[in-house]
Structure formats: C-alpha cells, structure tokens
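2024-03-11 09:14:02 INFO worker-7 job=invfold-0412 stage=load source=structure_tokens
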C-alpha cells in the first residue's frame, strides 16, 4: 500500500475517500471529503510551486506558472490517484459508480486532493512530511510535462510578448510543405504579426516549423533589445 494511504487515524482516511454521493445514500456514514479537498488543493499548489522553483532555477515566473498548472491539473492528479491506488478505495454512491465514477478524472483528482489534505492533518500539519511523499510523484511527471511544454513554449512566449507590446491579436503562422521524402517531409513556416513577417523556420512537421519560426522571431526581438 502506498504511504499516502497509510494513516494513524483511519477515520480521517475514510472521510478523504468518501464522495458526497456515498453520504447521500448512506447518511450515517459520516462526512464527505469536500473540505479536505479544499485543503489538499492549497497544499499541492504550495508544494508544487516550491518544487518547480527549486528544480528549474533557469525558468521565469510565466513558465513556472504554466508548469505548475500542468503539474496539478485534473488529468495529472487523476494519474497520481491511479498510481497510488486511490480508485480501489474510493467510496462512491451506486449512481456515481454506474456513471463510471471509478474512472472519472474529476473524481479521481478531487479524491487525491482530499487524501493530501487528510494526510497533512494526520501528520500534525507537517508540510515537510507531505512533501516527502508527493515530490516523488512530481518527479515521475515533471520531465514529461517540461518536454511537452517546451514544444509550445516558444510560441506561447512570442504570443505573450505580442499581446503585451503590440496587439491583442495572436501571431499568425503560414506553413507550407516544401519537399522531402514521404517518410521525412520538410515544412517551412513564417510567423506574421499584424501582417508583418517576424520570423521563419523549418521543420519535419508543421508544429516543428512553427516552433522554429517563433524561436527565430524571439531571437530577432532579443537582438533588437525588445525582449530580455
């Protein structure tokens, strides 16, 4: 059994695993987990922010904020819940079970948050104890999240600069297939801001070409002293 499901106070764990639908069908079974979910959400946001701040000292506020959002979003927390076996322990009402509750990302993620909140209380409100258990889960996900975010980050960064400094209209990418064999095609992309070309890039896919065009635009902006 995962340490997050090992409690001194079993009643607290039971509450963390109890959905409102179960209490509605079984009024004598105690409290549901929504207050614990609120607490767990706050704790996860704090721990994930500190974790990313220390792990990626080269990244700025905007990128850290996006990474934190990805690390504690519903789908990712649902994966954590499955990883530690929460779906096998959730207490759900019969109707919720019929609706696929044990596989529902929203229920899995909210229950995971509730378990985090309960674990914090069960261990004398010691956030370091929670951190020691949660950070290994973050380790298993953060590399993939960073790699995924890096594929779009240059485009995001350019869009943020454009909407901050030039226009609320997002950059426009014009991408063409320019050749290469069928198994390794080559694309060229140009990025336009208010109809003016700011960058150009090549890649083996449209996505790669657009990323290269955004990187080219960012490099030119930095060279001109318009972006730090």
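2024-03-11 09:14:09 INFO worker-7 stage=emit residues=228
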């Amino acid at each position: 059994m995962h340490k997050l499901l090992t409690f001194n106070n079993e009643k607290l764990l039971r509450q963390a695993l109890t959905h409102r639908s179960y209490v509605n069908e079984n009024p004598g079974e105690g409290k549901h987990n929504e207050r614990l979910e609120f607490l767990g959400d706050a704790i996860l946001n704090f721990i994930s922010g500190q974790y990313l701040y220390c792990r990626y000292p080269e990244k700025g506020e905007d990128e850290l904020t996006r990474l934190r959002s990805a690390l504690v979003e519903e789908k990712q927390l649902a994966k954590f819940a499955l990883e530690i076996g929460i779906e096998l322990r959730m207490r759900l009402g019969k109707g919720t079970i019929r609706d696929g509750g044990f596989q529902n990302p929203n229920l899995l993620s909210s229950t995971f948050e509730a378990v985090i909140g309960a674990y914090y209380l069960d261990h004398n409100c010691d956030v370091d104890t929670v951190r020691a258990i949660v950070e290994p889960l973050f380790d298993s996900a953060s590399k993939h999240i960073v790699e995924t975010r890096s594929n779009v980050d240059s485009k995001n960064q350019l869009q943020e600069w454009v909407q901050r400094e030039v226009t609320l209209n997002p950059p426009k990418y014009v991408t063409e297939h320019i050749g290469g064999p069928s198994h390794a095609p080559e694309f060229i992309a140009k990025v336009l801001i208010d109809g003016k070309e700011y960058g150009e890039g090549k890649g083996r896919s449209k996505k790669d070409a657009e990323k290269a065009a955004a990187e080219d635009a960012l490099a030119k902006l930095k060279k001109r002293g318009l972006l730090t």
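2024-03-11 09:14:09 INFO worker-7 stage=report msg="The first strand starts at residue 172 and ends at 179."
2024-03-11 09:14:10 INFO worker-7 job finished
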